[in-house]
């Protein structure tokens, strides 16, 4: 039986190499290589299955609608990137030899990637402000945050109330109404549930753990007691702030036609994807400013100019638009991202490649070398 790819193998695959080990664990069931025999078809031209494919071993051939072919070998630079990305597929892929491929759900991958990059941006900014980054990283790995729009996280951190608690004290009690949830900042805590006259220890909580949220989500009484077994501190988040945290922010979006009108008026494309994705193909004179560095580099943008953000699915660009809007910039996201465009429009838009454009101080744009 095949085993999932190791971290060392994942680190050469873009953009999988950006994800955290926690996120790799979430993808574990999809990180198992799949065999394909010589001559077998991997996908057809025009295919719209939401899957991201990587070639891990062997050779295959990509063929476009005009019959042009490209041979891809495992271990080559191109094999470190998804095969024929974008919807619908621009190529047919057929195995030339027995091959091994990786197939990952694109929606899940994009969600994880968006969160990872948005959080990296947030952590960099907070580190500059002297925050405890190690604790924040552990906090953000909590499964709760898979439900939270990245743009809301910094607002949430500002609403947390620190409470110091001695060993033996209860943080919350089984059966009581839930009016808040907590994050364990330091110390150790146990989750205990009554079983008749006995008390059953269900778990010991680690630093960064969130607890008490289940009662908020289900609107039911607490189903367990949490007691500190070692003195420490918790961060309290009130009910109304918890639900505000889960609410997705509204961002301004434009269609490709509306973007063309804004470009004619002096707007500029802003590509928030990874450098490897950008250099493969980008929009005319699009500035490159990846999401994970956006907060730090935003000061280089021209406040008198409108920016049009894009990425593959629209998730990363939506996070970018929310952030830049908060900083006072005029900015829009391409509705639905590049994947929502017909293949002809996508190809026409992404007409440049290689060294691109960088923002410099004073709102200047400079061609990278």
UniProtKB/TrEMBL annotation:
Designated name of the protein: cAMP-binding protein
InterPro entries linked: cAMP-dep_PK_reg_su-like, cNMP-bd_dom, cNMP-bd_dom_sf, Rhodanese-like_dom, Rhodanese-like_dom_sf, RmlC-like_jellyroll
CDD domains referenced in this protein's UniProt entry, alphabetically: CAP_ED, RHOD
Regions that span the bilayer: none
Domain named Cyclic nucleotide-binding: residues: 15-113, 144-246
One GO cellular component term: cytosol
All copies of domain Rhodanese, residue ranges: 263-346
